[in-house]
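In this supplementary section we document a worked example of the pipeline. Step one takes a protein sequence of length 422 as its only input; no multiple sequence alignment statistics are reported here. Step two produces a three-dimensional model, which step three serialises into structure tokens for compact storage. The input and output of this example are shown verbatim.
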Amino acid sequence: MATTPAPTESKSRPPGTRSVLRDSAFLRLWAGTTASGLATWALPFVLGLAVLQRELGAAGLGLVLAARTAGFLAAVAVGGVLADRHSRRAVVLWSALAAAAAAPLLAVGLGRSLLLMTAAAALAGAGQGACRPAFQALTAEVVDPGRRQQANAATTLAVRSSTLAGPALTALLAAFVDVATLLLGIGLLWLVAALLPGRGRPAAAVAPDAPRPQRASLRAEFVDGIREARRHPWFLAGLGALTAVIALGYSATSVALPLISRDRYATEWVLAAATTAYTVGALGGALLTARLRPRSQGWVAFAGLAAYGFAPLSLMLPVHPAVVIGAYAVAGIGIELFNVPWFTATQREVAPDKLARVSSLDFLVSYGLAPVGLALIAPAIHAFGVTPVLGACAAACFLVPAAAALVPTARHFGRPPVRPGA
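The serialised model returned by step three reads:
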């Protein structure tokens, strides 16, 4: 009996024959992703300007930012399920529109209603959270496998460049417009993120008379995504290592660097130079990963992640400021040596119909535990002193990725590549 052949993806071009930056579908997605990243970064910075201009108190700023984080964590898991259940393009559209709608509400509430600002910040965080896994999965639909690492590196480059140039540009704009107008500008960025990306590959057609599968609950589908993540030991190991570096290393340096810049070096210049060096290093790391194809990709990525340990290590002893700045540059390079292959491997190895859910698990765990680290680091420094805490966090940054690299399938972030003729 004849059978209908299974649908196959169109043949992808060999890597390097055509740059992903010449692909209009990717460029639209890239611009939308960049706009969402810039809007995400800009909100806390603009609200900080509101504090400087006494339109928002410090306690109010903390409440608003906490509401945004809560909205993000509440929506990221749901967004991952919806992006696997429905059109990923539709999830990007509606979640980004929700974040765009939050911007004018923040502007109206500024200086008038902290309650309105808190609710609007939660809405903005929810839009951001639902967008993230959908954007990751949409990249896998728009870009063929051979060019995904280049695409992820291009997106990282754009977001890091925005982070580097954004403070100066925002400060310049603040000289001509008020904070409320800047908040409306953030809403326009979210509109770009909502409207600019195109559709990914269409789903396989279903016969009109075919029975439609019954949908499971959101919770059941999210649990199914967890099962998919558990099928990939390299993913669980990488997620654990990334969470440890963010919750311990990044949190420790976020608290300690301003204190050490002030107390040890008696200047804010070290703080500014170190954070700038980190971003410049990340730009260099993204450029490197756009072309780097090491044989043991996972091991190289874990080594890059472990390099963040040099940041807390440099803050432990009274070294020259150049050592601190250099350590932060190395940490920035290393973090992108991990991030870009990590996203690419997830898009390659995870089942396509579960990709958004697995990506949401990534964001939920790594971002979700970061506030816990921030909350615990300051009391730990007060109880034990800054040097022991930094030493413990540096050790965790070095040792946890090293242990993760020993997990089966971690060496290649999945199955080893098949050699021609094997």
